[in-house]
Amino acid sequence: MKTTVIAVDGFASTGKSTLSKRLAKALDFTYMDTGYMYRAVSYFALTTDLIQGDVIQEQALEVALSETSFSWSTAAGPKQMLFNGKAYGDELRTLAISSWVSRIAQLGFVREHLVNQQRILSQLGSVVMDGRDIGTVVFPNADFKFFLIADPKVRAQRRFDELQAKGEEVLFEEILKNVVDRDHQDSTRAISPLRKAEEAVEIDTTLFSVEEVFEQMMSVVKA
Ligand code: DC
User: Fold this and answer.
1) Alpha carbon 186 to chain centroid distance?
2) If one looks up domain 5-218 in CATH, what number appears?
3) 170: CA distance to ligand 1 center in Å?
4) What percent of the chain has pLDDT over 70?
5) What is the pTM of this model?
């Protein structure tokens, strides 16, 4: 059976996950959040003392990572991704994790492990995947590719509102710095840097509502 891959790449907080979830629901595809995977590995490293002070214990992390796995939950409803059998939520979206994740995502062995897992996890059917390197590295032959951009201040405001709503005490300036730093680290790293695949449809979400961007994406997929 022919399955379809929709790749949604772009900068932090451009609306990738909200839009990818909407697309997956409308098309009855599985939604795969690959940022969740990099965040889960960062959380794992932080909570198992594989990050000490400002240093990532790379060799120990590589060994530990080879004994971890991602899987899909078998519970009813939208598929949930598990890391070592557990579903993670808001604990992966704190500023502390966001501050480490781009450094973790630069490590070659982390990327190799996760790209491998992403290809395995996508074998169960059609998928909408969001990330930074889906259309360029993970699935260069994806059926549809989108690349989302937006003004950094608007993106930081979205993240700020999201964290405040969850009760996390944060400063807007801190969030803006994190967004700008991650843009820089994600797009200048040596391995699989964030960049637009040539044939990807670029959408600037700064001035559009979720609904409007969703309609634009659906019209590309339906055409
Ligand atoms: O989408 P997100 O903000 O949750 O992603 C968190 C970080 O993970 C992001 O700053 C870079 C990294 N990432 C990556 O390098 N490749 C991906 N496919 C997805 C995320």
Assistant:
1) 12
2) 3.40.50.300
3) 21
4) 100
5) 0.95
For the chain, give every domain's residue range.
5-218
pLDDT of 161 strictly over 90: yes
The set of residues, in sequence order, having a beta carbon less than 8 Å from that of 91 and lying 6+ positions away, is: 43, 97
Q: What is the pLDDT of residue 200?
A: 98
Binned at pLDDT 50, 70 and 90, residue 153 comes out as very high
192-217 per-position pLDDT tens digit: 999 999 999 999 999 999 999 999 99
CA of 189, closest atom in ligand 1: 15
How far is ligand 1, taken at its centre, from the CA of residue 222, in Å? Answer: 27
